[in-house]
Amino acid sequence: MQLPTFKYHPDPITTQAIEESDETCDCCEKANGYIYSSTMYSADEIEYICPWCIADGSAAMKFDGTFVDGHPLGVAGIAADIIAEVCKRTPGYNSWQQEVWMSHCNDACEFHGDADADDLEALNGVQLKHFLKEEMIKIDIWQKILENYEEGGNPTIYKFKCRHCPEAVFTIDYS
Questions:
Q1: Between β-strands 156-161 and 18-20, what pairing exists: parallel, antiparallel or unpaired?
Q2: Among candidates 124, 136, 120, 147, which has minimal Cα distance to 174?
Q3: Structure confidence by residue, pLDDT tens digits, 85-99
Q4: 143: which residues sit within 8 A by CB, 6+ positions away?
Q5: Is the pTM value of this prediction over 0.90?
Q6: 173 has which bridge partners?
Q7: Per-state percent for the chain, helix, strand, coil, to nearest 5
């Protein structure tokens, strides 16, 4: 069975948001071979959701839940239909604190998982200044982060890509 396509999370297997599993989905009550590995925000106790119930919105509807916090996208002025797609029909990601879905060019960005050392070394100029200002990081602290950075470590830096221009957008998360 082919996994559904997620416009804002193009490779959920690589980012480990979706993993192979024999578990039964709490929404469709089928074992489809894959399961969502992060959190669904809902008043209900939900253990397993399959990617198909995320993609078609049935899990969000059935459990009146979301997969990410839409507030950052709302503050950025992103259209309500895009926010709904990210929050209700896109797998979220595991983070130390509350995840932040990034935006650029008046659209939500694609999530690409943990940034690697090459991504961070390539940050420079206006893009680096903007990132450091948004994350409130001083340049000397940034240099220490670069020296000690490990993917999946603490801090973790998540990489997003704009869907309309070549810009990569980053956010940092600490335990």
A1: unpaired
A2: 136
A3: 999 999 999 887 888
A4: none
A5: yes
A6: 156
A7: 30, 15, 55
